[in-house]
Amino acid sequence: MAACGAARLALHDRAYRANALHRFDAAGYVEVAGRLARSPGRDLDRDVLFIDVRTVRAGGEERTVRGRLQLSVPFARDKRPRFDGLAGDGVRASVRLGSGASFRNFGAFSYERYLQGIGVHRRASTKTALLVERAAPPPRPSARGLISGVRRSIQAELERRFPAPDGRDISPTGAVLEALLLGEDGRLDEATVETLRVTGLYHLFAISGGHIAIVAGLLFALFRLVRLSRRASSLALGAFLVFYTLLVEGSPSVLRATLMTLAVLAGRLLWKDVHILNTIAASAFVLLLANPSSLFDAGFQLTYAATLTIVLFTPPLLRRLPRLPFKLTELALLSVTASLGAGPIVARSFNRVSLSSLLLNLAAVPLVGLIMGAGYAYLPFAALFPALAAGPAAGLGFLVEVFRRVAHALDAFPFLSFRVPTPPPALLAGYFASLGLLLVRPRFRGQRQAAAALPLAFALAIAAGPFRPASPGLQVTLIDVGQGESILVEFPGRRVMLIDGGGLVGSSFDVGERVVSPVLWRKGLRRIDTLVLTHAHPDHLSGLVAVARNFKIGEVWEGLPAPDEGLVAAFGRALGPKVPRRRVGRGDAVREGRVVIEVLHPPPDPAAAPAPPANEGSLVLRMALGSVSFLFMADTGRPTELALLRSDVRLGATVLKAGHHGSAASTSAELLAAVRPRLVLVSAGEGNSYGFPSPAVLARCREAEAEVLRTDLDGAVELRTDGRRLSVRRAGASPRPAKDPDSGLTRPTKSVIIAVD
User: Fold this and answer.
1) Which fold has domain 474-755?
2) Is the peptide bond before 693 cis (omega within 30 degrees of 0)?
3) Are 685 and 710 in contact (CB under 8 A)?
4) Are 368 and 141 within 8 A, CB to CB?
5) How far apart are CA 720 and CA 473, in angstroms?
6) Helix ranges restricted to H, 408-497
7) How many CA atoms lie within 13 A of 279 on its CB side?
8) At what angle do helices 2-18 and 276-290 cross, to 10 degrees?
9) Among the CATH numbers 2.60.40, 1.10.1060, 2.40.50, 3.30.160, which is that of 2-140?
10) Which end of the chain is less congested by CB atoms within 10 angstroms, N or C?
């Protein structure tokens, strides 16, 4: 069976890679034409369109290219309304095609595998909504278009009754209702999302088994009220669930939950006795047969792990516990047994352990059921009697406010929710194997107690560990953070330094939370001994806010002072008052074991007053272990390079991290001649609008006989050295050497070793 599954996955992967849109190669903007596969997705700062592409025009030639495209369209409330379209509408857009790789870091979440799981062959972006136009309507009405219209009408009603304070788009309360009723959680504000993550209640906003159970319970209660037979109730419920799945536009979690429910309903209609484990297995088999990539989806794993532990452990525990009023015993057991299966997967996928959810679910689950029931009753009422809908809308808003208060009920106990490093697979396997031993029939006295102690021990190891081994040498990782910069330095032993945290300018995407922190957790880190802020520009600073919040920080190094406002102030609040902040400049030097770290720039100026951050004020660091050395130029350019060349500082280095993402005004021929690097590293985003790294810089590096590694092509770059030899590994490397599009040269394979002395 495993071999058949592996073969099906291989065939599925091959078909995906062979898709014409997935393989289409074009530089710059191209024009795509097709039809919307579903209603536009709504995020706070963008609309997301899923387009079934028919043609692509590039270089003056239009070609037939089929595939599904995920297009990100920027949105600003004060400029233009959102893109308004329905499933099936024709769309024509001028876009820049991207890869599905996103941020390519070692062991990171595979965004390409995620896109494959939802049937998307390519991502794309566009500068403005003006480059996207709604073309011809569908030739004839379709069921998909009609249901999309119903969905859009519901969104319009929520936007009308719950507008944002400026009167445009939707308020936080409306966004909560949109998430619960339609599964569209993109417009939840940052504060709400963070609260739901910390409390472990975010699962209530991802429409899945819990929502389907609530909908089924509400409908069964209605059918019982009108005295509908069990068979008729099952048929009616099945028909409604199919419609509901189409209304929320078939997200994978909804498909899983609906398929599991339909399997149970069908079994009860066809046979008197239905074994729930068989229906769960059948639904998983069908889903994996249709899309084997689902196996790697955290949502798939959470759904089936939680469902299995609920089914296997709730009945025996329920027989041993007293029944409390209002079904509190059942609610508590559902929360606990679901956490038995989902908890370790949440720790592995989201690096969080939330004990608060065990208590909060007791109030939150029935409250969400009440909000959903009231919401689904409100929508037809508002459509029929719009003049009378203000009162019920206010009631819905009140229920959402009650939910917010419930979510914050345990804020005084922050230790109930904490972040953990990524547990190794062996630890998870041991936990689930020991959990299975609880189901084995006792053979000797004390077996149950011993079996219960094992999963508890593994759970404690997941929460307290893993324990990071000491590093034998110096390891430097240029993290792929897109158009920004972040560098992790692991010294011999266990001490680490993080230089900058990346950040995307003008985007709500939190690089520190979503990219840098997971990289550190996968390393088994809980503490950053030295956090270095080279300068206070967003593409270096904004990611450090989340890092300071998620990790224990030993001390902070900073260069020239910056005004304590905006991101700088947020960074200070995240650090707290107890973390030492040290201003460093030229002449400062420290040792980390055998590694010498020198600050080369800026010049020390104790009297310097806070000034707007500037690239030329960036910290420049040099570190060396034996014969191998690294020079980190941050965002400096030619003025700083000339100042360093005129000074008496030591510049020679094996590895040069190019200044300012490889801009033409950095990494001059004079600097390259003085440094004489074997490798030059460039941190740049794929397809960035600045054209970094500059072709002039690449040409100068070729003339200096220095190999260039860049995150936009190579992903994260990891360098390890014992002081004599340097090994290089690339996260984005393919098994075969690839051509550099700028130089035409063959790029190095995934791992190389350079002898330095």
Assistant:
1) Metallo-beta-lactamase; Chain A (3.60.15)
2) yes
3) no
4) no
5) 7
6) 425-437, 447-464
7) 21
8) 30
9) 2.40.50
10) N
Structure confidence by residue, pLDDT tens digits, 76-104: 766 677 888 899 999 999 999 887 667 89
Residues forming beta bridges with residue 709, ordered by sequence position:
681
628-632 and 707-710 strand pairing:
unpaired
pTM of this prediction? 0.87
CA-CA distance, 103 to 543, in Å (whole number)? 14
Question: Measuring CA to CA, which residue among 368, 369, 396 is closest to residue 158?
Answer: 396
- Residues comprising the chain, all counted: 757
Q: CA distances (Å), 196 to each of 189, 205, 624, in order?
A: 11, 9, 44
Residue 631, strand partner residues: 622, 656
- Token code pair at residue 255: 């498909």
**CA-CA distance, 559 to 568, in Å (whole number)?**
13
CA distances from 108 to 105, 197, 503, 709, 731 (A): 5, 20, 18, 19, 9
Residue 431: per-residue pLDDT: 93
Q: Taking phi first (over 0 means left), then psi (-120 to 50 degrees means alpha), and beta for anything else, what does residue 429 get? A: alpha
User: What pairing do the DSSP bridges indicate for beta strands 527-533 and 496-499?
Assistant: parallel
CA atoms of 283 and 277, how far apart (whole Å): 10
> Cα 391 to the chain's mean position, in Å?
38
Mean pLDDT across the stretch 291-311?
Answer: 84
Report residue 582: phi and psi, to 5°: -115, 125
**Cβ-based burial of 394 (10 A; exposed 0-12, middle 13-18, buried ≥19):** exposed
Residue 475 and residue 720 in contact, taking contact as beta carbons nearer than 8 Å? yes
Residue-by-residue DSSP string for 1-50:
-HHHHHHHHHHHHHHHHH-HHHH----SEEEEEEEESSPPEE-SSEEEEE
Q: Which two tokens stand for residue 180?
A: 């619960």
State both tokens at 555: 């001390």
Q: What is the mean pLDDT of the chain?
A: 87
* Distance between CA atoms of residues 55 and 65, nearest Å: 5
Per-residue 3-state assignment (H helix, E strand, C coil) for 494-517: CCEEEECCCCCCCCCCCHHHHHHH
* Strands (DSSP E) found in 617-663: 620-625, 628-632, 655-657
2-140 and 474-755: identical CATH topology:
no
Which amino acid appears at position 591 of this protein? R
Structure-block tokens of residue 673: 């001649």
Return the DSSP state at 594: T
SS3 string, 270-338, reads HCCCCCHHHHHHHHHHHHHHHCHHHHHCHHHHHHHHHHHHHHHHHHHHHHHCCCCHHHHHHHHHHHHHH
Separation of alpha carbons 190 and 703, rounded Å: 48
Asked whether the beta carbons of 681 and 661 are under 8 A apart, the reply is: no
Residue 704 has a CB neighbour count (10 Å cut-off) of 18
Where residue 662 falls among pLDDT bands split at 50, 70, 90? very high
Taking only the tens place, the pLDDT of each residue in 581-617 is: 999 999 999 999 999 999 999 988 655 556 677 899 9
CA distance 340 to 334: 10
Whole-angstrom Cα distance, residue 65 to residue 192?
40
Count the Cβ atoms, other than its own, within 10 Å of residue 739.
10
> How far is the C-alpha of 743 from the C-alpha of 107, rounded, in Å?
29
- Residue 661 is given by DSSP the state G
How do residues 565-575 score in pLDDT, each as one tens digit? 889 999 999 99
The span from the CA of 393 to the CA of 374, in Å, is 10
Residue 752: other Cβ atoms inside 10 A:
13
Domain boundaries, the chain: 2-140, 172-419, 429-464, 474-755
- Beta-bridge partners for 134: 91
The H or E element containing residue 589 is strand 589-592
State how far the Cα of 162 lies from the Cα of 140, in Å rounded to an integer: 33
Tokens coding 343: 């908890």
CA 512/CA 546 separation, integer angstroms: 5
